[in-house]
Automatic annotation (TrEMBL):
Keywords (A to Z) from UniProt: ATP-binding, Ligase, Nucleotide-binding
Taxonomic lineage: Eukaryota, Viridiplantae, Streptophyta, Embryophyta, Tracheophyta
Gene Ontology molecular-function annotations: ATP binding; medium-chain fatty acid-CoA ligase activity
Protein's cellular compartments: Cytoplasm, Cytosol
Residue intervals of the AMP-dependent synthetase/ligase domain: 21-403
Protein name listed in UniProt: 4-coumarate--CoA ligase
InterPro entries, sorted: AMP-bd_C, AMP-bd_C_sf, AMP-binding_CS, AMP-dep_synth/lig_dom, ANL_N_sf
Classification via Gene3D superfamilies: 3.30.300.30, N-terminal domain of ligase-like (3.40.50.12780)
Main subcellular location of this protein, as a coarse class: cytoplasm
Coiled-coil intervals, chain numbering: none
Domain spans labelled AMP-binding enzyme C-terminal: 453-530
Family named by the database record: Belongs to the ATP-dependent AMP-binding enzyme family.
A single Gene Ontology CC term: cytosol
Amino acid sequence: MEQLQPSAANSSPLTPLGFLDRAATVYGDVPSIIYNHTTFTWAHTRRRCLQLASALISLGIRRGAVVSVLAPNIPAMYELQFSIPFAGAVLNNINLRLDARTISIILRHANSSLVFVDCASRDLILEALSLFPEHHTQRPLLVLITDDTVENASALSTADFVDTYEGLVSKGDPNFEWARPNSEWDPMILNYTSGTTSSPKGVVHSHRGTFIVSLDTLIDWEVPKSPIYLWTLPIFHANGWSLPWGIAAVGGTNICVRKFDAGIVYSLIKLHHVTHMCGAPVVLNMLTNSPDNKPLEKPVHILTAGAPPPAAVLHRTEALGFVVSHGYGLTETGGLVVSCAWKEKWNRLPATERARLKARQGVRTVGMAEVDVVGPNGESVKRDGVSIGEVVMRGGCVMLGYLKDPEGTASCFKNGWFYTGDVGVMHEDGYLEIKDRSKDVIISGGENLSSVEVESILYGHPAVMEAAVVAQPHEYWGETPCAFVSLKAGIKEKPSENDIIKYCREKMPRYMVPKSVVFKDELPKTSTGKIQKFVLRQIAKDLGSYTQSRM
């Protein structure tokens, strides 16, 4: 056949930003965002996003500049997922749970030009900027997001801010022509995988990858047109698994909530007839253990990911009327790219067996080309549910790479695959199951934290000789850090468990602080002197079971 060439007519760069244009045309009078007593339609949302993008240009924000956001799931946070890339800038959402030191590191590494800051985080961002070195000349501009529902917000000084969020919106041009990418490979998003290292990894995603994963999630989760989506998953967490753009594609309604509270969630589900929501397994646990829980009037689809949800939690959640779907992804994939695709025949199995199957990570989604588990030489392991290997994948959802880190990028891109660092098995039926994490990442409440980073803080304690941190199973958080320490000889006053925990609280974000500290004369080691973490994990698991049985 004749070899035809691509042309301008069929080579328009893929980007999810166009979803908002279509939503305004098709669903213009449909509610797009509901927050307390505020309601916008899709026509309103598109106009506000264009105005804000226009205002960013007037502030001097240029194509390719990084613009950061520090905000909860409020309307401004949703709008910024479109407005910032509309201006041609790169969107950088920052985890609200991080401390000032970590935020300062991220802003400097990203070379952020501007930061949108929620009023509740005003003091946090000012502290972060105060930690900039004196020689650091480029400090980001600040824009304050006000909110009348936040106590004392109206009394906050705006002296350090160039404007307020609504002030910028009011000054913008509603007819602004948003900046389409020159190439679908242009950077659109910058997310950070870790919040506590002096060299954080900035994950860069393209317009193309974000377009693919946004539609991929809609297909895999079988999201219909006009869903009512409740934002229980933080948008700062991998851009809410790319659902801000996905919900626009199907003309859904975004129910925004500033802070997760089980009682409020149940009331919003009933008030707005919520159909879909997402969250880590800890969210499922909070919903099932809430005194406000009662069987739902209509089924609500809930997508969960992170540490595999315990079978008991899955059973309790589904008994209330939630339809649980389980998936797997990384910051580097922009969302979930493996899902436990459910088979009709499994519905006839006992509840415990259904929960066991649903806890597996599953198979690749349609947008991910290939997922495999490989041995040390890159060979596929046996599909027997026993043979261990590293999880690898390739497809359009995978990141462009790590910002300013060519070595880190090269270390995970090998042999045409993205090496995740997660260890798992492949079952005979082709379903993936994560067994461990070669990088010792602990998933607590849906947040990833590195045991190595916690250990580095523990080693700073004057009484600690050795330290090792492993994941301890937890019914509420999924996993929590458990620290094993040995103390230096000749210490006059030995620290207690509470002393170690207090020390950690002063040095790291609260979610990273070990919930248990176990003192040992010496940590178990291999013949080469390496700490045997698999031994410690079993001790932590037994300790967790014992502790929970006593509660």
